[in-house]
Amino acid sequence: MKRSFFIIFALLFPLLLLAQDQDSTISNIGDYRSEKLKKLKPKKKVKIAKKLEKKGSYLNALVYLEEAYEAKPDNHKALAKLAQLNYLTRDYKKAEKWYNTLLQEHEGDYPESRYYYAQCLKRNKKYDKAIEAFEEFKGQYTGEQSELKDYSDVEIEGCKLAKQLMAAPVR
After folding, report:
1. Whole-angstrom Cα distance, residue 120 to residue 124?
2. What's the gap between Cα 72 and its chain centre?
3. Which of 7, 39, 44, 74 is 20 to 30 A from 81 in CA distance terms?
């Protein structure tokens, strides 16, 4: 019995070692503070962030994207990805900030960004601004996702209802 356990263990142990992440640059969240990573070029940081995003590690990807954007603020792709990942991680305050920056600097390149900006405003309880943003989105959006205009109508109604409920809370 002991012998068979030892044999099985000896055969499976190397598999456990192989299962470890081979990419040492992104293996640990604490590594992003290291001097080695601070010295990386913004392009490399964006590449690492893309790998992390594909793995579903959005929070870690955000760390690299923020550093890449700080080093190179004209990188509108990193800015758009910052806004999107903050939205997906439900950090709507930061997402609002990044979408606002994106709209001011590169609105034409990302037409759906106004919709998500309005979503952030709504989730941050800025209902009047959210209604304005949804209306503005509906008026100028000509992109492929036409259902977003329909969703905007529903979101506007939701903002109006939220304002009513905030004015006269139900007990």
Report:
1. 6
2. 18
3. 39
